[in-house]
Design brief:
18 strands; single chain; five-stranded antiparallel beta sheet; ten-stranded antiparallel beta sheet; globular
């Protein structure tokens, strides 16, 4: 399916398990993407690497660099994919703001400012997502990715979700980090911490979580046998 937006024509392939997005750049237009996200690009598309976010973004677990792709004299195509298998989503911002978890940002138009937002020590530490969110604001196309499928939820009052499944949310939503239930449930139920959202806006969640997959696969990892012979 090809989608025409006010900025770029783009199409998704391989959804939802192994998503890739192809973006057509008009002549003279630029798109920026997370470092290492580029899969292919036409020969007439040029790339520049810029420092973005400085030391604060580094603390948040995000890359220090963003790559900018420009179609210099003729239209050109560039494609992007995330490091983990999963889905992708597109929103067109019109002077709006979306907050993404670390690692979810994929690419955005030149009119979208991408920066780090301090969550606060408690929120950042207990959410398991680092101390920063990625703040995307302005006007233009925004692409983000997840591990697993992406579901869009319209929140009108309140919503509770395991922190490991949050992909992003729109401005107008606030959240608090808390336990799923009491301490007994917290330690023995297998449920982790939850984000309790309030307000009105859009929430994007992922159907799988990387930490849960790592926990599942951990017993099957190769283990080197220790040689006890002297």
């Amino acid at each position: 399916m090809t989608t025409q937006t006010s900025e770029f024509v783009h199409s998704f392939e391989g959804r939802p398990e192994f998503s890739l997005v192809r973006v057509t750049l008009p002549a003279g237009r630029t798109i920026k993407a997370e470092a290492s996200a580029m899969v292919t690009m036409d020969t007439n598309v040029s790339m520049k690497t810029r420092l973005k976010g400085g030391f604060r973004r580094f603390l948040g677990g995000e890359s220090l660099f963003i790559n900018e792709f420009a179609a210099d004299r003729f239209p050109g195509e560039v494609s992007f994919a995330a490091g983990l298998p999963g889905d992708m989503h597109h929103v067109h911002l019109n002077g709006e703001t979306v907050y993404l978890q670390n690692g979810a940002f994929l690419a955005a138009g030149a009119g979208v400012d991408v920066s780090a937002k301090w969550q606060g020590m408690i929120k950042g530490f207990f959410s398991g997502a680092g101390f920063f969110l990625v703040k995307c604001s302005g006007t233009g196309d925004l692409f983000f990715a997840s591990y697993g499928g992406i579901l869009e939820i319209d929140v009108k009052d309140g919503y509770t979700i395991d922190t490991k499944h949050v992909v992003g949310f729109s401005e107008g939503l606030e959240y608090k980090i808390g336990k799923f239930a009491g301490y007994k449930s917290f330690f023995f139920s297998g449920e982790g911490l939850v984000a309790k959202f309030s307000g009105s806006g859009k929430l994007w969640i992922q159907t799988r979580s990387a930490p849960s997959f790592v926990s599942w696969i951990w017993p099957f990892r190769p283990v080197r046998q220790r040689n006890n012979n002297n």
